[in-house]
Every structure is written in structure tokens, then in C-alpha cells.
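Dear Dr. K.,

Following up on our conversation at the group meeting, I've run the structure prediction for Nucleoside diphosphate kinase from Hyphomicrobium denitrificans. I'm pasting the input sequence below exactly as I used it, so you can double-check it against your construct before we proceed with anything downstream. Let me know if the numbering doesn't match what you have in your notebook.
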Amino acid sequence: MAVERTFSIIKPDATRRNLTGKINAVIEGAGLRIVAQKRVRWTRAQAEKFYEEHKARPFYGELVDFMTSGPIVLQVLEGENAIAKYREVMGATDPKEAAEGTVRKLFAESKGSNSTHGSDSPAAADREIALNFRLDEIVG
Ligand code: RTP
Ligand code: MG
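The predicted C-alpha cells came back this morning:
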């Protein structure tokens, strides 16, 4: 299995409740290394661009409102099979469907306010990392 990088966001519902450290403990406990991290607040334009694949979905406006409602923590995670592994660590999109011990089961408030984002494919990871980090901000 190859070492991969994936892109992660700790979302506004989680930063508001001071959960960054607890979520990072779950990430690191799963064997993923946080090789880049910064706390930012997105503009609407940044959120719209990041989520442009969801533009036609009914929840798009709500999603952009939510992701610009407070600080977020952007991360690059590195490890064996990091993309699939982090999706497992996060659990299902809706916390009601998420497995025990996953970030969303432990912390998410709802399907919309679900505490974290993780890339869903190698192409998405490449795009999302490039949109949010310079190469010299990632230290493996
Ligand atoms: P993410 O992209 O954040 O890692 O989550 P995901 O792949 O599990 O979910 P996705 O289908 O890509 O949806 C992106 C985000 O939009 C919000 N959402 N709300 N109210 C709804 O029905 C609904 N569906 C999706 C969630 O915040 C989801 O993570
Ligand atoms: Mg997604």
C-alpha cells in the first residue's frame, strides 16, 4: 500500500465547540500524520469554489453558509492509504449512520454540521490540497 496524502477540514461546528484537539487525537490515533495545518476563515468565494461540484445540489447554499460561519482548520494528512483511511475515521456523512468511534459519531451535530471533511479520491485530494496549501507549507 502506498503512502498517500489527503485533505481534511475541521468544520465550524467543531471549532466553535473547541474540538480541534480531540479530533486531532482521533486522526493521530489512527496512524495518520498531520503534515500541514492552518486555521482560517473562508470567504464565500473560497467556499463556493471548493464545493463547486455540489453547485446543483439542494444543500449547496446551506453548505456555503455553514462553511463561512466561523473558523475552520485546514489540514493535509499523510499515511498508508490515507484517503480511504480518513473516510473511515470520519464515518458516514450523517452522524446517525456513522459507526461507533468515528469522528462524526463522536462529535457531529447533524448531516450538515458534521465536524469534518475528507477528500473522496486521489484526484479530489490533489485538487483540494493545491487549492489550500503552498508546497512549502506541507512538511512530511
Ligand atoms: P465531505 O465532502 O464534507 O467530506 O462529506 P461527504 O463526502 O461525506 O459528503 P458530500 O456528499 O460530499 O457532501 C458535502 C457536505 O455537504 C453537507 N451535506 N448536507 N443536508 C444535507 O442533506 C447534506 N448533504 C450533504 C455535509 O456537510 C457534507 O459533508
Ligand atoms: Mg465529499
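Two things stood out to me. The two ends are 18 Å apart (CA to CA). The domain at 1-135 is CATH 3.30.70.141 (Alpha-Beta Plaits).

Best regards,
J.T.
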